[in-house]
Amino acid sequence: MANVNNLTSKILRDAEERKESILASAEEDKNKILSKKIAKAKELEKEIIQKAELEAKTKKERILSSASLKVRNNKLSAKQEVIKEVFENSIDMLATISGDDFLRFIKNSILSLGEIGEQTLILNKEGMELVDLTFIYDLNQSLGDKGNIKLSPNTGNFKGGFILESNGIEINNTYEALVSSLKDELEFEVARVLFN
């Protein structure tokens, strides 16, 4: 019986040792698995942080670029508004020239056209107050056989200058048309003077 007890004790001790060995091995496997999972989680965390930082940087650059573009567009719009105002003011200044200068402008402009035939001179309200039949007679005398100008009884809706009209065809010498025709040529120069 002592052998059975010894044998049972030995089996129990072996089982206990085996159990300890299995538990130690399981604990070691558990620690290895946990270490791998923690390392993988830290690696994933690092990747997520890098990706978030990159996205934040990209978003910041986009926001700054958009803001910069908006500022540039606003500046450009303001400059264009100032340039537009300069041209509008130049029309207003032309509209304030003296009566004698205005009459000289009409006469010189019409004479420079060469042969013009029969034309109707259209003026705005202020121009109608300055031009009389004597001026028209003198103008026609200066033209000789090249043309015959008649004064229109109707006034035009423009700030200054004049329009010559014949059979629906107009020669537009209003201040607005003259300034507009020079605008493309002068816009760069005006911008240079204003903003440099």
Automatic annotation (TrEMBL):
Keywords: ATP synthesis, Coiled coil, Hydrogen ion transport, Ion transport, Transport. It comes from Clostridium sartagoforme AAU1. GO terms for cellular component: proton-transporting two-sector ATPase complex, catalytic domain. GO terms for molecular function: ATP binding; proton-transporting ATP synthase activity, rotational mechanism; proton-transporting ATPase activity, rotational mechanism. The keyword Ion transport applies. Residues 12-62 form a coiled coil. Belongs to the V-ATPase E subunit family. This is V-type proton ATPase subunit E. Produces ATP from ADP in the presence of a proton gradient across the membrane. Transmembrane segments: none annotated. Pfam families: vATP-synt_E (PF01991). One of its GO terms (biological process) is proton motive force-driven plasma membrane ATP synthesis.
